Queue: 3 jobs
Job 1
Amino acid sequence: MSNLPSEPEFEQAYKELASTLENSSLFEKHPEYKKALQVAAIPERVIQFRVTWEDDKGQVQVNRGFRVQYNSALGPYKGGLRFHPSVNLSILKFLGFEQCFKNALTGLSMGGGKGGADFDPKGKSDNEIRKFSVAFMRGLAKHIGADTDVPAGDIGVSPREIGWMFGAYRAEQNKWEGVLTGKGGNWGGSLIRPEATGFGLVYYVQHMIQYASGGQESFKGKRVAISGSGNVAQYAALKAIELGATIISLSDSKGALIATDEKGITPDLVNYIADLKVKRKQLTELAHSSEYKDKFNYIDGARPWVHCGKVDVVLPSATQNEVSGEEAEKLIEAGAKFIAEGSNMGCTQDAISVFEKHRKEKKGEAIWYAPGKAANAGGVAVSGLEMAQNSARLKWTSEEVDEKLKGIMANCFENCLATAKEYVPSAEGEFPSLVAGGNIAGFSKVAAAMKDQGDWW
C-alpha cells in the first residue's frame, strides 16, 4: 500500500490485528486466512461528499462528510457517526476496521462501518448544529438504509443530532425505518442504549475479576480510574459505583479530575458532570463550584494515569491512544490489575506491549488487558438490539435489554478466553491473552462469512 498516503491510525489498527494473528497458531491451522486478511483490510466502499450549510450570519459554510462501509459479510454496515474537526479517512478507516471485529464479537448480525464529518460543534449554536445535521444527512441518505447501513452516534453526535438526522432521512426517503440507532425512546429507540457502552464495559471487567480471583472478588472495594467524561465514562462510573467500587478519576480534553476523599467521585458529581456536558462545558467549571471544589484536584492539561495513586481497575474511556507506554508502566507501579478500553484503541501499541509483557512475566500477579473491540462492544450490541426491536415493531423493557446485554458481554468474554486458549497457549498460571482472543475470534468469524459468500477463496 506504499502508493497510498500515510494513514497512521488505520495502519496502527491493522498492524495490531495482523501481528496478533501472525503470532498465534491461526495461520498454521488456517493458512488460507492470510488471503482473508489481505481482502478484509480494504473497505468495500468509501463515500466522501461535501456538506454545505448556512450559519447564523447567513454565510454558507462547507465541510467534508464521509462514510466508510467496511464489511457487510455478517449484516448491514453498522457503526457510529463522528462530528469533530479531527475527522479524516485514516481515523474513520481505523474505527470501521475495528468495528467489523467488535460487531462480530457481539454475536449479532452486523457488519462494520464508520462515518462522520470534519465539523466542529463547539462554539456553534443549536440552530447551526441542526442545520449541519440535516445537510449532512441529505448527503448520506442515498447510501444507507435499514438493510444496508445503520449508523449511530459517536463523538459530537448525541441523541439530539440523531433525531435531526432521522427526521431529515424520513423526509428525504419518504419512509420510516430503523436506519439510525440511538433514537429517542418514544420513536423507536431502545432503553439502556445511552448506558450500554459503559455498563457493558463494567460487565466485561466483572468477568475478568471473577475469573482472575476464582470467583472470590468483584468490583466491591476496588479503586477505579476512568478517563473521559462523556456517556461511556459516566455510565461506567455509575455502574461500578453500584457494584461497590470507588471512582478516583474522570477527565476531558482540558485536564483530569482526581478525587481527594475516600468516597471518590460520587453519583451526584457524575450527574453534575453529565449536565455540564449537555451544555458543552468543560470540567474546569467544577473548579468554581462551591459544592464540589474541595472534593477533588483538577490537573490542567493532564490525563489521570500518573496522578491517581493506588488503583485496581483502569478504564480508558475518552479517545484513541490515551495510554502511552510510560503511563502503562506507571499504572502497573500503582498496583493496577485490570485495564479495559471503553474507548476505541485507547492504548498505544507501546502500552499494549507493556501490559502483555507483564502478563507473561508475572502470571497471576500481572495486570490483565482487554481491548476495546471486546470490552466496549456493549454499545453496538444494544444498537443491534434496537435494530431487532425496530424490525419487529416491538419495545423491550429496560430489564429485558439489560439482561440481554449482560448475556452478550458474558459470551464475548468467554469467546475471547476460549479462543486465546486455543490459538495462543499460555504458561501455567498465566492469564490468557484477551487481546489475542478478541482479535482472532472477531477476525475468524468475519473471514469465514466472507469465504462462504465468495469474497475470497
Job 2
Amino acid sequence: MRNRPSEEPLRQVRPHPGDQPWNRPPHPADVDPAVLGALLHRHGWQRRGGAAGRYGRWTPPGPGGGGTSLLVPESRAFPDSDDLLGEALDALARNGTSAAREVLISLAVPSDEIRWWRDTPSGPAGAAPWSAGEHLRGAARQMLLAAALATRARAGYYGARHRRAATALLDEVLVGPAAEGRTLTAFAPVPTGRPLAVRLHQALHAAREAIDYQRATGGMDAFDGAVEAGVSRELTEALTTLVRGTEGARVAVAWAPGTQAPDGCASAAEPVEFSPGDLPVLREAAARYLREEPSVPVRVTGAVVRMRRSGPGGEGTVRLRVLAGAEVPHVRVTLDEEDYRIAGHAHLVGLPVRVHGRLERRGGFRRLTGASGVVPVQVDEGERDRLMKALQENLDFFEEACGEAYGDED
C-alpha cells in the first residue's frame, strides 16, 4: 500500500467495474411499478388506457409507436404484477430505442437525470453533421466537470485545482445515446452523484438569473453572487460551447423517481434555456472570473520531478508533484540558489520538500510565486523507497539539470 505524508487525505477505493449495478439488467422483483410508470412518462411514453387501478397500457414516443405497447401494473397488489413487470422489462430490452434504453438505465441504477438539447438545423431526413454529436458530448462533459468542481469548493475560476477529485466524480456518471447530436442524457447515481446534480441545477438557474440581470441593467454584479451557487468560468465556458452554433439550447435536471427532491430544489423544474443572445454576456463573465479570482497562499508538500536552471549557479525552476497542501497535481516554482540546492539534495535522498508561497491564478494555479522556506519532509520507508525508485529512473536527467549541486553532496 502506498504511504503519504500525514497532511494528505486518503483517497477512496473505487469498486471494480464488474461489480457495478449497470452491468446487470433490472430484475422484476427490484422494480417499483410507480417508478417505472414515472420513468416511462418522463421519457415520452404515452399511457393509452388499461384497467383502472390495475395496470396501464403504454406506447413509445414518436410515430410508429402504436405497434408496441407495455402493460405496467400500478402496484403489486395483484398476483400477476411480477409477470407483467417481467414482460414489460423484456419488451423494453427488445425495443432498442433511446426512450427504452434510458428507462432501463434508470431502473438499473436509480439516478438523477441531466438532459441537454441543442436546437440546430436539420440535414436531409433529419441527419446531422458528424461533429454535432462530439460537440454536444464535449459541452456536456465541460458542464458536468464544472458542477463537480463546485462540489469541492466555490470559486470563480478553478484552473487545475480540484481536477483530480472532480474527474473521479464523473467516473460514476452514466451517459445515454446522443440523438442526432441534438439531445443527450446523463445519469448521476443517487448515492454518489446527487451532489453534482444539485450543484448543476442551482448553478444553471443562478447563471440564467445573472444573464437576465446583465441584459436588463448592463451590470455584471449578479455573477459575483452566483459563485456561491456554483457558477464559475468553467460553467460559463461550458454554456458558451453548448450554445455556440445553435438557435438555442436547454438543460434540465430531473430527480430520480421514488426519491424526494433535495432541499432548496423544486420537485419538477422546467429546462433552463439559453440563446445565442446570451453569448456576449457569458464570454464577459468568463473573462471577469479569470481576472478577479485571487491567488491563494499555500504550504505545499511535494516530490521534485524536474529541475532546470540556465547555468551551474543561481536560481532555478523546480516542478513538484503535489502530495499535500494544494488541490492541484503539479506546481512549478522558481527557487533561489540555496533553496534550489536543498530541493536537489532532498530528491537525491528520496525526500519530498515543503515550501511556502502563493498559488498563482495565471496559468491555471499551476505556478507557485514568492516561494520561500524550502525544507525536506520526513516520510515513512515505503514512500521513500518509491521516491528513490523514481530517482533511479531519472538520474541522468537530474545530474544534467542540477550540475554542481549534486557534486557538493560529497
Job 3
Amino acid sequence: MSPEDQHHHSDHVSVNPLFARPGEDSVASKYHLEDDGMLPETAYQIVHDETMLDGNARLNLATFVSTWMDPHAEKLYAESFDKNMIDKDEYPQTAAIETYGWRILADLWNAPEPEKALGTSTVGSSEACMLAGLAFKRRWQHARRAAGRPTDRPNLVMSSAVQVCWEKFCNYWDVEARYVPITEEHKTLDGHDLASFVDENTIGVVAILGVTYTGMYEPVEKISAALDAIQAVSGLDVPIHVDGASGAMIAPFLQPDLVWDFRLPRVHSVSTSGHKYGLVYPGLGWVVWRSAEYLPEDLVFRVSYLGGEMPTFALNFSRPGAQVLLQFYLFLRLGRSGYTAVQQAAQDVALYLSSGIAKIPAFELWNDGSDIPVFAWRLREGYTENWTLYDLSDRLRARGWLVPAYPMPDSLSNLTVQRIVVRNGMSMDLAASLLEVVEEETAALDRLPGPLPHVVEKSAFHH
C-alpha cells in the first residue's frame, strides 16, 4: 500500500461513523466467540442498544427490587465493584462493614442481646431463607438423634402463598413442604388450624412479613400463640423463621408497635432483602439468628482462602462486596428517621393508588397497601365477560407500565388479581399519571362491543 493509500485508509477509519464500523455493520454473533474482537466503544454500543429493548425500570411495578439510588451511592458502587465479599483477609474493612450491617439489623429487629446475635449477608433473601431453613433442619436432626428418634421425614409448614425459594429449599434438601391453604376467610397464614399441619417431624414454621402475591403481613404473633397452644398440648416446641424479604425493612419504621420479630421467643431467625426495601441495588440479602445457639456450629465452614482463615456459612462463595457497603452507606445516610420518611412516602403513594383503584367500578381491592406498600385487586364478580385483568395488564404494558396479572395460589387459583409494588422512586406525580392511564384503559375495555379472544391466558406474575 502506498503512503498515499495508507494516509487515505487512516483518514477513512478515523472518520468512519460508529454504525458503519466492523461489528456494527453486521449482525453480532450471540452464540459463539468471533475470531477477532472489536473496538470497546463498538462492543459497548451493541450491548447498550440491546438493552434499549428492556422496559423502563422506574415504570416496572411488578418488581420489589430497587431501581434507584442516589449519586453518592452510585459513586461508592463504582469504587467497590472489585471487592470480593468472601475475601475477608484482603478486604478486612468490607468484612467489618458486613458485621456492622447484621448487627444493626439484629438491634432493629429487637434481638434480646444484639451483641450475641449472629448473621451474614447473602446474594439475596432467597439464599438467606435457604440458610435459615438449613439451620432449622440441622437443629431438628441433632435433637432427634439425641433422643434416639429417626430423622428421615422432616417437614416445614408454610402458607400456600409462600415465595418460590421455600419450595426450592424443600426440594433441594429433602424436606416435606406442608402448605396451609389461604382462603377468602383466611387471606394469610394466621395460625388457624395449624395443629393439623404440625407434628414431631416439623422443623419449623415460616411466617411471611409481606406476602409476595399481595403484600399482606402474616400475623407472626398469632402464629406464635397458636404454636404455644400446640406445645401446651403436645410438648412440641416448633420455632418460627420470619421471611421478612420486604416487611422486615418496613415494619420497624412504619409499624414499630407490631410484634413480629425477636420480641417473640419462638422467632429463631429473620431474613430480608437489602435490595428490596433495604433500598440497595441487587443483589443483597441478610439473615440474622437471635443468638449463636440457633445456628448449629457444624454448618459453619472454616476455610483457608487467599492467606487467611475465616468462618463462612453461605451457599455462594465469591460474591460482590459492593452492595454490603451500599447498605451500610444507607444506614449511615438515612438513619431511622430517613428510612421512616422514605418508606412512609412509598406507603402514601400505595394508599393513594389503592384508593383510586377502589373508586373504579370494575375493581374490588384484595388489600390496600397499609402493610408493605403493595396492594392487589380483582375484577368485581359479574362485572363483565368481555375482558379480564390480563387484558388490562397488556394495555398498560403498551403504555409503558408493567402491572402484572396472575392467579392466586392453588386453593384460590380461580381468582385472578393485579398487583402494584410501590418502591422508592415512584413519586406521587407518577402515581397520578398511572391512575389516569388505568382509568382510561379500563374505560376503553368497557366500550368493547363483545368479548376479546383469549387463545391462551398467561400469568404475568414472577416471584
